[in-house]
Design a protein that fits this description.
single chain; 377 residues; mainly alpha; 15 helices
């Protein structure tokens, strides 16, 4: 639909378009309001999750792809100098935390839903915290400014996944698309085999990496400078607050939305790296990470919702680039839909493999041994 727009028009459109993150956030209170007095009250709490994974994949095809890459000489310095983009990402933090606390109160006190409606509410809030909250935290933890680092950590603490702050930057980005990375899914590996492995090893790797950092400073792992202790303590305070304010239902809601959010994160990891592997060089090391080692998705709508997260190929090659200047590469491996559609596909392994395995085989044409070797771990 918009693929023929001039690049400078598209960049101007996206400057405003990034605010679409407000739609799912505001969709939470709207779905509650529309359920009041409805004959189908239990259906409305499922609205957000239904739109995200039902309507958005179809709209991705209608809206189409984003043709615009910022000019490296003129556009990139100007875009990176604009504090607007930084403020936009930071603005999500108070909005999401307010939405989370209000949603917990509704879950614990509203009597108009059965357990079906309550489940839909918890999953919808968790989807927003995962899709918007963790996406923004991912952007923030890659930056050097303490404000952004702490804002990203706070969002991760709100979904009980603080280890991502350490493991993603110091582990995943170092070992991506190698057998050493628990967040890089193997060729032929189902989502349901991937998830338990990712949960366990990413948690353990975060503690190992932080312990190694402290050891280099001559400090024990259980030290007050261990940032994981602080962030997991913050998660415990969130849980305590929800419990004291809303009782056991508040605790159930907080833990349920957190599980939904970080599971969504790991499904996205599965999608982003399925079957792609950095080749091992003669010296035993892996080749440098390039835009060819992550799946790219250039569908405009979901890229606006996710702050260009789907331009993942450029992100892994140049992790410090801010979201507004990430580029699309035509020669990167390309997903056939945005992340919302690919997440739905990943839930059904036979369909996933029917679509994605031929794409992986095409990527490794002439080097099929790479596929068998990738399954050895």
């Amino acid at each position: 639909m918009l693929e023929r727009l001039p690049s400078h028009w598209m960049l101007a459109l996206k400057k405003v378009g990034y605010w679409v993150w407000l739609i799912p956030v505001l969709g939470i209170p709207l779905s509650y309001h529309w359920s009041l007095g409805s004959l189908h009250a239990d259906a409305w709490p499922w609205l957000v999750i239904s739109v995200v994974f039902g309507v958005i994949p179809l709209l991705d095809f209608v809206v189409g792809r984003d043709p615009a890459n910022p000019d490296e000489r003129d556009d990139v310095p100007a875009l990176e100098a604009q504090g607007y983009y930084r403020l936009l990402s930071l603005a999500t933090v108070p909005m999401l935390l307010a939405m989370l606390m209000w949603s917990g109160w509704i879950f614990a006190t509203h009597e108009g839903w059965s357990w079906v409606g309550q489940l839909g509410w918890m999953l919808s809030v968790g989807t927003v915290m995962g899709a918007i909250g963790i996406t923004v935290s991912h952007e923030l933890i890659h930056k050097d400014a303490p404000l952004e680092q702490n804002a990203g950590g706070l969002l991760l603490a709100a979904v009980c996944y603080a280890g991502f702050k350490v493991e993603h930057v110091r582990g995943h980005h170092v070992h991506v698309s190698t057998p050493e990375d628990a967040s890089s899914s193997r060729f032929g590996q189902s989502l349901y085999a991937f998830l338990p492995h990712a949960y366990k090893h990413n948690f353990l790797n975060a503690w190992r990496l932080e312990a190694e950092r402290l050891k280099r400073r001559g400090q024990p792992a259980l030290h007050w400078r261990n940032e994981l202790i602080w962030w997991y303590s913050t998660s415990a305070l969130f849980l305590l607050g929800f419990t004291l304010a809303f009782g056991w239902l508040g605790a159930l809601f907080f833990l349920g939305q957190a599980l939904t959010a970080f599971t969504l994160l790991e499904i996205v990891n599965y999608v982003e790296h399925y079957g792609l592997h950095r080749r091992k060089l003669d010296n035993g090391r892996y080749e440098r990470t390039t835009p060819h080692h992550s799946w790219n998705s250039n569908f405009l709508l979901t890229n606006l919702f996710l702050f260009h997260l789907q331009r993942h190929s450029d992100h892994h090659a140049y992790a410090k680039r801010r979201y507004q200047v990430l580029r699309h590469f035509d020669d990167s491996p390309q997903l056939p839909n945005g992340y919302a559609g690919m997440i739905v596909l990943a839930l059904f392994p036979p369909l996933w493999r029917a679509v994605m395995d031929p794409k992986v085989r095409a990527y490794y044409a002439g080097e099929e041994h790479q596929l068998s070797e990738s399954q050895l771990t």
